């Protein structure tokens, strides 16, 4: 528990820090961009990290885009990216079911991205899109699909009472898999409107189903397992960059990654000071190893490292 401001370090210590890792796990929303607006110099920083020989992974809890769609978004915002570098929860949800040799059908509360990733994994599904409330309709009975053996809950702008009924009813069978893409409470955006995140929907279904979901995203174990086993990530030489301490930084703390908080998204310095003083270990685990105002502020240090390496 340290929360060292990168900008207070002397040049030698900054270079030591930059040389201490060979792999970067970077969150996206709030770190690299806000919605569709890239944050200043963030692409230059990540691309220069790559040029200096660092492995780059885009590690996002966002379930509204497939890996291919995220590659296209990265490229449109000037970030170099490749499909195998995208770790997203829509894909992880399909990958999790594949690991269970799943052959049945999924009820999805979520986006078309989850559907696309399930299709790529040859897994059938239903539930995408609006489920309209019909006036005077009885909710006591609906025709259950006997093939449903999993429920996935991701971000769904069509979230509704009928979907809650169906998800909770299917989950009443303890043999039905229950997957939540992530637990982010709200989305980081650049105005004062609150956009509820996927975590709000997952908690709702957990409450009415009286079950806990297996969570695909940060800070839970499955994402770390995939990174370590499939991509051979070595935690002691990996940097986790994020803007949200209770997901990104906690993920790094739990699984042994060095952590860097950027202050362009959800968490703030006042949060860090409060967590430092907390008597609860989990809140103390929210405290990053390092922080900086914005990822783009790393550019001057990386240029120094580039000069040293040449």
From TrEMBL:
<feature type="binding site">
    <location>
        <position position="243"/>
    </location>
    <ligand>
        <name>Mg(2+)</name>
    </ligand>
</feature>
<dbReference type="InterPro" id="IPR023214">
    <property type="entry name" value="HAD_sf"/>
</dbReference>
<dbReference type="InterPro" id="IPR006349">
    <property type="entry name" value="PGP_euk"/>
</dbReference>
<feature type="active site" description="Proton donor">
    <location>
        <position position="27"/>
    </location>
</feature>
<keyword id="KW-0460">Magnesium</keyword>
<keyword id="KW-0479">Metal-binding</keyword>
<dbReference type="InterPro" id="IPR006357">
    <property type="entry name" value="HAD-SF_hydro_IIA"/>
</dbReference>
<dbReference type="GO" id="GO:0005737">
    <property type="term" value="C:cytoplasm"/>
</dbReference>
<dbReference type="Pfam" id="PF13242">
    <property type="entry name" value="Hydrolase_like"/>
</dbReference>
<feature type="binding site">
    <location>
        <position position="29"/>
    </location>
    <ligand>
        <name>Mg(2+)</name>
    </ligand>
</feature>
<keyword id="KW-0378">Hydrolase</keyword>
<feature type="binding site">
    <location>
        <position position="27"/>
    </location>
    <ligand>
        <name>Mg(2+)</name>
    </ligand>
</feature>
<dbReference type="InterPro" id="IPR036412">
    <property type="entry name" value="HAD-like_sf"/>
</dbReference>
<dbReference type="Pfam" id="PF13344">
    <property type="entry name" value="Hydrolase_6"/>
</dbReference>
<feature type="binding site">
    <location>
        <position position="218"/>
    </location>
    <ligand>
        <name>substrate</name>
    </ligand>
</feature>
<protein>
    <submittedName>
        <fullName>Phosphoglycolate phosphatase</fullName>
    </submittedName>
</protein>
<dbReference type="GO" id="GO:0046872">
    <property type="term" value="F:metal ion binding"/>
</dbReference>
<dbReference type="GO" id="GO:0016791">
    <property type="term" value="F:phosphatase activity"/>
</dbReference>
<comment type="similarity">
    <text>Belongs to the HAD-like hydrolase superfamily.</text>
</comment>
<feature type="active site" description="Proton donor">
    <location>
        <position position="29"/>
    </location>
</feature>
